[in-house]
Specification:
This protein has 264 residues and is mainly alpha-helical. The chain has twelve helices and two strands. A two-stranded parallel sheet has the order 1-2. The chain is elongated, with a radius of gyration of 26 Å. 22% of the residues are buried. The C terminus is likely disordered.
């Protein structure tokens, strides 16, 4: 399979997921590539690609690399001052939540089929907030604010709890496991998307730095100001790409229009 063919398949798969509200299952990914000789590792990479595009892959839990796990474990022990203050405030808020009472879960599950369903779902989500916090701390990645990950986890909890019905919620532990799986899937999608944005920003910053260095080299060589087309040629990029970089940096390089005589 060529790179172009793979890109077309990924576009088609992304389109299918978008048509389903930005969600797809791991089994659907496997079925889509059935007969194309993809290994489990390659299918996992496809799932990671979808996550980076903000698509939730139900039934897929991203495998954390040992180096990432070690880095995350170290980072958890050294939140920034801002994150630590936010976490302490959040823990204080959690402390004000009424603890689950004996028999309360069964009562809440029984209310899910009637007019009390909205309040019951809110209470179930409230009870599980401390569990979401522990899950989020486990999934924390440097480069994304802790409070943003916690807020995403809380949002996913509310969304998942809103889909509960009485029969499904009757088994407390099974319900909790199901909710936590959905929350993990939602949070990992958010993290993958943020990592993609961060990587793209880093590339732009490097391009801007390289472009600025290239302009300075040409200035020294020519002993005069450098024009846009010259800088673009030197960096082996198009003038449109050079203009995009200039908009990013706020720098100015003269346009070559009507300026050819000035180069003599």
């Amino acid at each position: 399979m060529t790179k172009e063919e793979l890109n077309e398949l990924l576009k088609e798969l992304s389109r299918k997921a978008s048509e389903k509200g930005g969600r797809i299952t791991r089994d659907e990914v496997t079925g889509f590539f059935s007969g194309k000789g993809f290994s489990e590792e390659q299918l996992d990479l496809v799932c990671d690609f979808l996550l980076s595009r903000g698509i939730v892959v139900d039934g897929y839990i991203r495998k954390q690399k040992p180096a990432e796990a070690a880095e995350a474990a170290q980072q958890v022990q050294r939140w920034s001052d801002e994150e630590q203050r936010w976490l302490e405030h959040y823990l204080s808020d959690l402390g004000g939540i009424r603890p689950e009472q004996p028999g309360e879960w069964a009562a809440l599950a029984g209310q899910l089929g009637g007019s009390g369903a909205p309040a019951a779902k809110r209470r179930i989500a409230e009870i599980l907030l401390p569990d979401v916090l522990e899950l989020v701390k486990e999934m924390y990645r440097p480069g994304v604010l802790l409070q943003d990950i916690i807020q995403e986890g809380s949002l996913q909890l509310v969304l998942a709890a809103d889909e509960l019905d009485a029969d499904e919620a009757a088994d407390r532990e099974a319900t909790k496991r199901g909710l936590m799986t959905k929350i993990r899937e939602g949070v990992q999608t958010m993290l993958a998307s943020q990592e993609e944005v961060h990587a793209r920003d880093e590339k732009l910053v490097k391009k801007a730095s390289d472009f600025r260095d290239g302009v300075e080299i040409l200035k020294e060589e020519y002993g005069r100001r450098v024009y846009l087309d010259e800088a673009a040629d030197f960096m082996n990029i198009t003038e449109d790409e050079a203009e995009d970089i200039l908009r990013l940096t706020g720098d100015q390089v003269p346009d070559d229009s009507g300026e050819n005589n000035a180069r003599q």
